Amino acid sequence: MSATASAAPLLQAKDVVVEYGTRRKPNRVLHEVSLEIAPGECLGLVGESGSGKSTLGKAILGLVPVAGGSIAFDGRDITHASGRDRRALAADIQVVFQDPYGSLDPLMTVGDILAEPLATAGASRAEAKAVVGEMLDRVRLPKHVIDRYPSEFSGGQRQRIAIARALVRRPKLIICDEPVSALDLTTQATILDLFIELQRDTGVSYLFVSHDLGVVRRVCHRVAVMYRGTIVETGDGEQVTGDPQDAYSRRLLMASPVADPALQAERREAWLALRGERAA
Amino acid sequence: MTSPLTENIDTRAGRRGSVFVRLLKRPAGAISFGILVLIVLVAVFAPLLAPYDPNFVDLSITRALPSPEHLLGGDTTGRDVLSRLIWGTQITLWGALVAIVTSLVIGVPSGLAAGYFGGATDRIGTWISDAVQSVPGMIILLIVGANTGNDFNLLMVTVGVFMAPGYFRLTRATVLAVRNEAYVDAAKVSGLSHARIMGRHVIRPVVAPIVIQSALTAGMAMGMQAGLQFLGIGGGTTPGWGAAMNEGFRVMRTDPLLLLWPSLALGISIAALAVLGSTLADVVSVTAPLPSRKARRARRAAERAAASGEPLAVTASTGAVAHAAADSAVQIENLRVRYETADGEVEVVHGITLDVAPGEVLGIVGESGSGKSQTVFSVLDLLPKTGSYTADAIWIGGEDVTSLGRRDRARLLGREIGYVPQEPMTNLDPSFTIGHQLIEPLRAVHGMSRADAKARALAMLERVGIADPPRVMRAYPHELSGGMAQRVLIAGAIAAKPSVLVADEPTTALDVTVQAEVLELLRELQQEYRMALVIVTHNFGVVADICDRVVVMRHGSIVEIGEVAQLFSTPEEPYTRELIAASLDGAESRAELDRAFALTGSTAQDADAQEAAAPAATDASTEADRKEVRA
């Protein structure tokens, strides 16, 4: 399932501009951002808080209005899709949010949470039950959790539920907005493995938004680095996370500490040298 | 991977079912609820309960005192007071019901729409609500009464309209709070229509406050209704309590009892509604009630009794010390931390022993719920009210502080121990300037003059790498970035040159480039002042970067203590290995995983291939993760 750049892109964002604030005093958070995601590919989007990486995901999902440029999905222009068109896209584009606590309605059972997107799509109760069972299996949760409430689960388990909800409509693209950054390290590793496994099994594409280079290196085929609303570098995952070319990407890499005292001492020296260059 | 505290959270289903039970468990709730049930029953069965026709005139009992035949006596025109009160219950409750339903029907949907859609919908809704509130309701009611021949139901509908803004504002505020929750966004992405999202996700959190509001509103509606009838509006032949009060008022000097009975009925009803409403609010808002003092005392006594009989099974203390107590910066022996919860006491740190030498950097690592933060909060003596700790010994700066009182321990803060918190922003008071927040402690704790304190604060800001200290001194916290705020807090923590600096996840809330800067700063300061530094973190990269020695914690115990180089190169415990492996550094990249998968995955089953590709250690924790669900 390794993605190639030659395949027709599933998602194509071109010169996307997003502005917050009032019309008279707009605050531009995305400056003509362009990227492509191929079918079955995982594209990582890294950057610091406020760089605009989550905003791009929200623009694709239609949760923030796009002020300029275009977004095409599967050849269709979805830049300004709203109402019925946007609801129809729910079958193809889904989301997993960062916060495993806020993204599940605390007053609904897991079964209701998972069945809701299917019911909206007009599936019968029996169909919905079958699909929910299949997806729980895929995310490795026992079937009986459908009667439980989100508050009864740990962070990692909730994120599994959120992933199962994203999967029930069998989408082609899932926007993953920092899906593991609120989790403990060991839980994080298992959830990342789950993402990879699901991609191999279903051929779904991911836009994987994260601030952690180690995380995107693990799951992403290609990686884009975002800085202050602009993409400064895009390339092969190993290359961008191992030997970045752009100055900001290099600083980002050298600032990320490695879990090895000797290597980290080297990296710190490299980071200090970069910092010195920048100050000079 | 949950902490013991969260594992003990009872289920949502149990909580919801028990709101009513918990309401009745409180005397105020039980009594007020009982009174209201009684009042409703009286209203429903009025025809059966009332001994006489409320409008039947028997001139012989005019202004009669209570007697066996007429328990509450007769009124000014010779009607049975008790019968009129009983029938009055019906009309009073009906009026309140009409008013509340009207308010609900107008206020809740408009509040939902205003809160959910925002923008113009919200502005128009709020404008109308404000306008309704600014209209003098009583005058409108008088006009309505005069023009409709005192139509009782219409009057109560009007009362309802005037109370609708209360529901509107409450609903709107609650909806605003949940509108930006990720689950509402997730519902939008799932393709749900706005109506469905409002009906299924947004309205539920509104229900509890609405019920509470309705109890209070019902009391108000009853009061309004009685007031109207007292003025002679909306009364007519209906024997309402307000009309009875009006009549009683006229003969108050000669027959005070005629005023007393309806006033009592109205007063008790409104009071019961108000008490029920506020008790409900208490019950709903307190999700994890603290055990009562009596219960706590009883449990302690039981524990003591048990302890004197046969000693409780106490786990041995984990960890060890590396230095003599008098030579250490911090030393704790057999520290235990307990929390009071609704289900009793829960021990979250099970006896740990560790120490830090002067000038040493000690890392405490572990996942959430490992007790690492609880450990440092105990050293700082800053546990929350529900928490407490015991220790065989605590030494700080070479002094035995085990038996010191709270006040003496607090005196160590800022002098011997500096503290850098996890969330820099929430640890600065938004209403004071940075300068004020740095200078005040220096004056209060160290008795410096204002000028000296200011000079010291400026010097410290300069030292922590703030570019323009005088400007930052005048700034308020919201004008700073997270990294600058953390530098300010570090400046405050080291201003008194403490011998130990305790940093609880000091970089977790920061971006990696800022994290690198803050770690570099901490390293420089630690070396410059020869401070001991205790750094709590879940990030092994941070440990590798700055620590000399590491303590690995899990589930409230110490798993392993070691020198940093040794711990990373040859970790003794499987759990330490698992944690290091999970930090993804040196783990296979996606490209490598895919190559491995292509070799094995094409023939083998998917699950087997997955296991082959993933590090063995992480599979164990998947298993653990799943076990939690079964448990």
From TrEMBL, chain A:
Keywords: ATP-binding, Nucleotide-binding, Transport. Gene3D superfamilies: P-loop containing nucleotide triphosphate hydrolases. It comes from the Bacteria. One of its GO terms (molecular function) is ATP binding. The keyword ATP-binding applies. Residues 11-253 form the ABC transporter domain. This is ATP-binding cassette domain-containing protein. It comes from Agromyces soli.
Automatic annotation (TrEMBL), chain B:
Residues 330-580 form the ABC transporter domain. InterPro entries: AAA+_ATPase, ABC_Ni/Peptide_Import, ABC_transporter-like_ATP-bd, ABC_transporter-like_CS, MetI-like, MetI-like_sf, OppC_N, P-loop_NTPase. Residues 89-281 form the ABC transmembrane type-1 domain. Residues 603-631 are annotated as: Disordered. The chain crosses the membrane at residues 30-50, 91-117, 124-146, 259-290. Keywords: ATP-binding, Cell inner membrane, Cell membrane, Membrane, Nucleotide-binding, Translocase, Transmembrane, Transmembrane helix, Transport. It is a multi-pass membrane protein; Peripheral membrane protein. Its main location: membrane. It holds the Pfam family OppC_N. PANTHER family: ATPASE AAA-TYPE CORE DOMAIN-CONTAINING PROTEIN, OLIGOPEPTIDE TRANSPORT ATP-BINDING PROTEIN APPD. Belongs to the binding-protein-dependent transport system permease family. Belongs to the ABC transporter superfamily. This is Dipeptide/oligopeptide/nickel ABC transporter permease/ATP-binding protein. It comes from Agromyces soli.
